[in-house]
Amino acid sequence: MARQWEVHKQLGNGFQEVVYQRALAIEMQMQNILFVREQEMPLDYKGYNVGTRRVDFFVEDKIMVEIKAIINLEDVHLAQAMNYIEAYKLEIGLLINFGSKSLQFKRVHNNKVLNPDLKGVKNYPDFENLKKSSHQENQTNHGSDK
Fold it and tell me: N or C: which end of the chain has fewer CB within 10 A?
């Protein structure tokens, strides 16, 4: 997923997160990369729904991408990305920060995934509904900006 460098090269730093999110969506569309943008997913605690979270991107049905537009990534942002991939039983995630002068990114890996042959989101109970959503539908249905 090298498209983040193109976005940072073209836009630089200093814009709001949603600008980078939109630009990255365009880059992925241009490269025919399968993704879902701003997928709202429930958060469960011991079988009880405790809220929802809107993930910036799911890429190729298995990678969570969380975008930031801040001066510097901090431990709290890495912890947030880790929490998301663990909560959704994903194998891998990517945290990208477009807000610094140089592009920052961190790859996060979920050590709690029991079977590495199960590719991330497929462990999530609502996977079929995620796959049916196209990125265009999702942008329309979740058009509100952060």
Answer: C
How many domains does one find in the chain? 1
Do 119 and 62 touch, CB atoms closer than 8 A? yes
Q: What is the pLDDT of residues 94-140, one digit of tens each?
A: 999 999 999 998 999 998 875 545 444 444 333 333 333 333 333 33
What tokens were used for 31? Answer: 């490269």
Q: Is residue 27 part of a domain?
A: yes
The encoded tokens of residue 75 equal 């431990």
In which domain, by residue range, is 24 found? 3-38+50-140
Residue 106's SS3 state is strand
Give the Å distances, CA to CA, from 98 to 5, 88, 122.
9, 24, 29
Question: For the domain that residue 18 is a member of, what is the CATH number?
Answer: 3.40.1350
Q: What is the pTM of this model?
A: 0.73
